[in-house]
Amino acid sequence: MATTADFRNGLCLEFNGELFTIVEFQHVKPGKGGAFVRTKLKNLKTGKVIPNTFNAGVKIDIARVERRPYQFLYKDGDDYNFMNVQNFEQVLIEESVIASPDLMKEGQEVEIMFHADTETPLSCELPSFVELEIVYTEPGLKGDTATNTLKPATLETGAILNVPIFISQGEKIKVDTRTRAYSERVKS
Fold first, then answer.
1. Domain check: are 135 and 181 in the same one?
2. Pick from 36, 62, 88: which residue ends a domain?
3. Three-state DSSP class for 114?
4. Per-residue confidence at 81, pLDDT binned at 50, 70, 90?
5. In the chain, how many domains are there?
6. Paired strand residues for 154
7. Looking at residue 179, which CATH number applies to its domain?
8. 10 Å Cβ neighbour count for 79?
9. pLDDT at 53
10. Cα dist from 153 to 101, 149, 174, whole Å
11. In whole angstroms, what is the distance from residue 143 CA to residue 159 CA?
12. Strand partners, 24
């Protein structure tokens, strides 16, 4: 058992019979009344973020979770196959657990979070940035770089992203997996 004094970003806790992670928290000591902790909790199953307020000193159940490095092998229907890079065990994960599955290519290193007591996969996170090749995009106009114009581009994984107009087919770009946005062109 822990208390609200142990709160930190990323902490996993059991709340209302479900697993949540703390996205953000703030200790508040008003001039009148007792202290409390204002939090934003992200449900690990649904991904929904909810606000919640805890009274200071309240006991909470911390969930034991482990983050393990895995490598994406292949997609089989709606399930994805991953291999543990340390002991080479394979695990099958459904698509709903993975953040941005369409930005993942075979051989991609990911981090899978498991509930330590039940060995259930809770989430699968890609690195912050991935490098992907553009397989199709409309050609841009020469010299049209003064405006901040974007155009759709199809990536090697099948994902469609908006990229600046000067990016052409066959180029590699860096994509931010958290915002699903173009970051920069990869220099070869």
1. yes
2. 62
3. strand
4. very high
5. 3
6. 136, 160
7. 2.40.50.140
8. 11
9. 94
10. 17, 13, 13
11. 27
12. 40
